Each structure stands twice: as C-alpha cells, then as structure tokens.
Amino acid sequence: MNRRFLFFVITSLLFRILFSLTVGLIDDEAYHWTWTKTLQLSYFDHPAMIAWLEAISTQLFGDTLIGVRLPSFLLYLGVLYFSWRLALELFGERSAQFVVGLILWTPLWGFGGYVASPETPFMFFWILSCWIFWQYVRQDAYAWSAKKTWICLGLTMGLGLNSKFIMALLAPGFGLYMLFNKTKKKDLSTRWPWIGFILATLICLPIFIWNHQQDWPGFKYQFHDRHTGESFSLARWGGWWAAQWLFLTPTVYFALILTFLKSMQSKNETNWRFIFFLSLPAILVFYPQPFFADYKPHWPGSMYLILALALGALWTDGFSWNYKPILRPRSRGLFWSTVTVLAVLNLIIYSPFISPWWPKAFRVLNSQGQWKTTYDMSNEFHGWLELGQRMNQKQREIHGETGRPPFLAALRYETTAQAWWGSKNPVYMLNTPRSHYTIRQESEKLFEVLKGTDALVVTTEKYPGQPMDFAAFENCTSEELKTYRDDEHSRTFTLWWCKNFQGLKL
Questions:
Q1: ∠394-399-405 over CA atoms, to 5°?
Q2: Structural domain that includes position 473
Q3: For residues 197 and 217, what is the distance between their CA atoms, to the nearest angstrom?
C-alpha cells in the first residue's frame, strides 16, 4: 500500500470518527439501540447481532454515541481490510485501492459506515465468508482444505445470518461455483459442506427459537409480507433503478454493470468466475423484486461489493462486448468523472452537518417558497436530546400536579426510538404497525397495567398524528417544541398530555 493511498485512508477514517462522535443518532440507530434494553434471541425486523454487540459496548461506554457506534465502526474497519485483501488476491493492488475508495466515499457504503445498523456486521461476515471461499477455490499452493474451509464458513455464515437474512444468498453462489468447477464439484458429495451447513444452522438456533415462540413474525415479515401486496409496476422498478444511480453514482453503477458483464464473458478465469457466481444469486433476487413488490434501495449493496472487487481490473483492462470496445483501458474519463461526482455528492451530503445552509440556499433560489425542515435530511440527526430533556421535565411537572407520573409514548417506531434515546427512559409505541415494540408490548401485556394513567405522547412534523386516533383517552392537550441549529429552525415536536388511558384502538 503506497503512502499517498495510506494517507487517503487514514484521513477518511479520521473524518469518519469525528462525524460519529459529534452527530446524533438517526432513526434506525436509535431503534436498534432500544433493542439493547430488552435483549432477546432475535427481533421482528432483523436477527439480534447488532443488539448483542451494542449491549456489550454500551455496558463499557454507556448510552453514548461511542457506545452505540463503536461495534459498527470496528466491523467497518474489518470490511475495509477484507475487501482490500480479497481484491488484492483476486486482481492486484489497483483493484484493492479502488474497492477501499468506493467503500469509504460512495454514498451506499460510505454513509452506512457512519451509523450503527445490522448492515455493518452483516457486511463484515459477508466479505469475510467470500474471502474464506476464495482461499478454498484459489489455484495455488495456498489453497485451503475442504475441512478447514467449510468449518470456517459454517461459523461465518451462521454469524452473518444472525446479522441479516440476506447472508443466505451467498450459499447458492458457493454451490453454483462448485457445480461448474470440475475440481470442486466432487466436494459437494463429501461431508464437509454439509457439516458447514449444520454448523451454520446450529448458530442460527436463536432466530428459530425466538420466531417459534412468537409465531414466526420475523420470517413472515422478511420472506412474505414485504415482498407481496403490490401489483406489477414499471414505474416502481424505474424508481428503484434511479435509486441505484443515486446510491452508487451513475459512473460507478455503469462500471459495476460492465464488471458483471465481463465476469459473464470470462469462462476460464478463476477470479472472474468467482465474481460472477457469487454476485449472480443477489442479481436474480433483487433486480426483478421491484417489478412486483416494494423494495429498499440498499438491498443489493452486498452484491455490488463483490462486483466492486473487480472494478479496478475492469478500469485497467477496459471492456469490449462482441469485440466492440465499450470502455477503453485506463479510461481517464471514467476515473475523473467518478472522482468528481463522488466529491460533489459527498460535499452536498456532509456539509449541512457543519452548518445548515440548505434553508438559506432555498430562500435565495425560491424567495416565495415555503421551506420545510424535512427538506434537509441532516435535521433528522438533531433535536432529540432537547426533546428528551423537555419530556422528562414535563413528566415531572405532571407528576407534581397529579401525584402520578404519566408514561412516555409516541406514534411510529422511529419517533418512539428517538424519544427513548433522547429521554433515556422507556417509551411506548401507541399505533399498531408491526415492529419490535408492537410484539414486545403485546407479548408482555405492558398496556394492561397502564390503564387509567395519563400519557405524555410525542409526535413530529415528519410523522404528525393525533394520539386519540390510535388510543382511547379522555382528552389530550398539546404544546409545541421547536429546536434550532445555529439560527435555523430544524425540528418541530408536539408533546401531548393525554389523560386516562384505556387501551389501544386496534
């Protein structure tokens, strides 16, 4: 690794550390942090790995930004290392540098590395499993035995599945590679791949036990509910495709598609066959998905990471299709357009965290328009601690006035999680869409003991609502709390004092 590239990596990581220690949690970070307050074997949205890791770090560092984000940051370093090492072994130094640069600054991977989420442990075990499989199929003296490979893969696949279910898409990639490889095909009939499968299954027992206890909500949600209920839609697929351009930038997305096409062409090269078969299952699953059901733009991110391992080799060698050149070797246009787009996009993403300039620019460009705080995504990281302080103060005031403290509540899981983070006190979710809160509150019958008490309910300008639409109260009165960043209004919260709770409206 040359000095200039090492300086680039260290500088990028220092910026990442500064950001992580100074900018508040986003909704899903707060949501997963609340899981640590009720540790379970698994959860509705995802398996439990992120909660287990954060439970350890928050025990060491408290309910602080470093306590919440440290596990993800350390695993992000692991993603960088094994991506660099695997690309180095597959295609050489240039590819290793390309993939590290993309992970650090492409919005899809770069921004995700700042926040604590199930994606980071999942991506770590994903790329580690890919590296282990490469040690098995590489054609040199350093190749691993089947026994060593499948025991290690059983461990990493099991841990990855305890992070996120998408991990399962690596298994058919491994199988397809072996099926079409004369040397490795015979190993499918040995005991070692199946021992690895059994080991991974045993490590996943927490997921199965929890889902069995709760009537399989996680499996129903992940494998059925979120993939059904929509009609065929070209427009939805177009939106998904546009999101891929935004998350990766157009130039990177174009290069990754060419990388996959090149892997299809390379019939006899072990490294390119590795790229093709390991990325193929995710492509077959996630590219048709938006035609028929809703989607999340980041779902194919792990598949793109496999393709990104070869991006440096594509840039070095160029690409032709049916002997027609599509991309010239060492294309300066591709390189500088990628660098320029990434630089501009990252400046737009991160500069509002330094100073809220978006509303000022809006007023200059559209003096007659009405600015809304929700237009600036960076506002979502702010204001929750101020809200929490006011909630705790208001709770004490009501306690002093009535002789009994109201329970804290919110509408939607995002607001519930952030209010819990800001106040550092348990917050109940009053509406009934399925989430960790819904299942926990139902299974533990938490609302039964609260009947007859008052509630302090919070809503936001992003997710407004009337508490009495979701729960039975005698009456509700409200007060507004506005927060500011510098001289700009950033958030508006509404606190509702609702009297005599009688249960949820189902």
A1: 90
A2: 379-499
A3: 24
Q: What is the pTM of this model?
A: 0.94
Write phi, then psi, for 383 (nearest 5 degrees): 95, -15
DSSP assignment letter at 228: S
Q: What is the pLDDT of residues 51-68, one digit of tens each?
A: 999 999 999 999 999 999
In a domain? residue 168: yes
- For residue 133, the one-letter residue type is F
pLDDT digits (tens, 9 = 90+) for 130-164: 999 999 999 888 999 999 999 999 999 999 999 99
Domain count, the chain: 2
As given in the structure block, the two tokens for residue 192 are: 């070692």
Q: Are 57 and 74 in contact (CB under 8 A)?
A: no
Rounded Cα distance, 129 and 376, in Å:
38
- Predicted pLDDT of residue 1: 65
* CA–CA dist 56, 257 (Å, integer): 40
288 and 407 both lie in a single domain: no
Structure tokens at 299: 């779902």
The 10s digit of each residue's pLDDT in 299-318 is 889 999 999 999 999 989 88
Q: Are residues 295 and 385 in the same domain?
A: no
DSSP notation for 358-406:
HHHHHHHH-TTS---GGG-GGGGGSSHHHHHHHHHHHHHHHHHHHSSPP
Would you state the structure tokens that stand for residue 126, as one six-digit string?
């994903």
Provide φ and ψ at 355, rounded to 5°: -155, 135
Amino acid identity at 234: L
The phi, psi pair for 74, rounded to 5°, reads -65, -40
Buried b (16+ CB within 10 A) or exposed e, 432-446: eeebbbbbbbeeeee
